[in-house]
Please model this.
Amino acid sequence: MSARNTQRITALVSALAERRVLHLREAAELLGVSEMTVRRDIAEHPDQFAYFGGHIMSPAQVEGNTRYEIATAADSNAAAKREACVHAARHIRPDETIFIDCGTTLLHLVELIPDEYRITAICYALNVADRLTRKPNVTMVMLGGLYHPSSASFAADSDLDRLAGFGINVAFLSAAGIDMERGATCAAFHEAKVKKKAIALARECYLVADSSKIGKLQRAFFAPLGAFKAIITEHGEAPADEA
Model:
C-alpha cells in the first residue's frame, strides 16, 4: 500500500472515530479524492470499513438495545430528520394512499405534504395523527389498539387485519437502527408487527432516517434492507441494493 493510500485510510479512520458515520461525498471531499477512489479504498479494507446506502462506517459499529422515549427523541438530529423528509416527500403523490410510520422523523414528512394534495394517509401514532389533522385535504385513517406512551403509538392484531383492506401506494418507514447485515430494526416489538404488515401491503416502501441510525441495531427486527426501494437520509436517496 502506497504512503498516500495509507494517509487516506488513516484520515478516514480518524474521521469515523469522531463522526461515527460519513457519507461517501463527505469522505471524498475530506480526502480530496474522487468518490470512486474512496469506494476502492473501503473495498480494499473490509476489516476497517463498511459501506451501504451511500454511507461509510466501522463494521463493528453495532449498538445494543436502548430504550426509546419519544419525548427525548423529538429534538435529536431534528435538522437531519427534516432534510431526510424533504428528499422523501417527492414520493408523495396526489390521489394516492400512503402509510406513515410512528416516531419523530416522519412528523416532518407530514408537514411537507402540499395542502392541495388529496390523499389518504394511514397512521398508528398519536403525534403523526395530530399533524395530519391539520392538512385540509388529507383523509386520515388511524389504527387503534393498546396505547404505548414511549412512542405515542397504538397496536392491536385486529387492526392489522383492518390494514389489509387498504391499497397502499407508498409506505414511509422509520427505524431506530439500520444494520448492513441485520436490516431495519426498532426498539418495540409491537411497532415491528405494524411495520411488517405495511411493508407487505405497499407497492413502494422507503426507509427514512437520519444517518445517526446507520450502524445501530435495536432489538426488534422488521425488514431486510432489500424490502425497501430506497434508503433516504439527510444526504439524499440511495438504492437499497447498495446495502
